[in-house]
Amino acid sequence: MLAVAFAGTFAASLEAPVRAHLGLPCEVVVADEAGIVGKLGDVDVLVTMAFTREMGAAAGRLKLVQVPGAGLERIDRAALPAGTALANAYGHEVGIAEYVLGAMLALTRGFVRLDAALRRGAWESQWAVGTAPPPPWPELAGKTLGILGYGHIGQALARRARAFDMAICAIRRDVARSAPDGLALLGGLEILDEVLRRSDYLAITMPATAATRGLIGEAQLRAMKPTAVLVNVARAEIVDEAALYRALAERAIAAAALDVWYRYPTDAAPTLPARQPFHTLPNVLMTPHVSGWTEGMLQARARLIAENIRRTARGEPPENLVG
Question: Does domain 93-286 have CATH number 3.40.50.720?
Fold first, then answer.
């Protein structure tokens, strides 16, 4: 019988839905990342966001390390035992694409501010008595969306943005893997300056790598339109923290929606998500890394992980094999 281990909080949250999709008898172990080490000797499949040298040394018969997300930053690939496959999981692209569009609309139309004002009885609209109406809101239609990272998320976002009659400029590391898809512009990092110049909205959906960490700094932010809105749903370190704060505080760009951060909780105490005081800026929409946390994502990943466990039992390579 195959033995499957779920290590860490997120992996453990998928244990029940994976078993519901599995249809295969398995021994199942659930533990935190430290506690799983002593149990890995007889494990065939490890579902985990992290893989360490200690895990690799303890694994006696491990056939598959299944990451229950897309990111591989915490996987020490050199520690994988010989013959152990590595796979990751997606399924979050729909939720993240919907989040990006929702954030763009919320910031463009000032929903958060208008809601707060109306709760005080203040009508910031053409219906107010005795005050001039506000300027009319921009529409997404006819605007340009720049997408930095035209993979699963970027393509899902582009499909939805086209339904809003937006023009799309996109950057992808391997351009040959993408069809033109009716994009206004598609290329590698060499077209970054042009994408920044054109974009009314800029969505960051690329992985954090040596080539992308710090990619967006002061010069790049100053190259954007002063009316531009930035949405980061990838990794915070792609954008220089201090430069982003200055650009927003000084209105070098109009606004930002940030769902990924420079600092995360390490205990139950309240934790501000950055060294810079983004929480004091009225033109920032702050969310706690939840853009992909949807019912659809959890079910898609549970189905994929269950399928890869079945494939391992049959001696077949997993889906989403990481080369």
Answer: yes
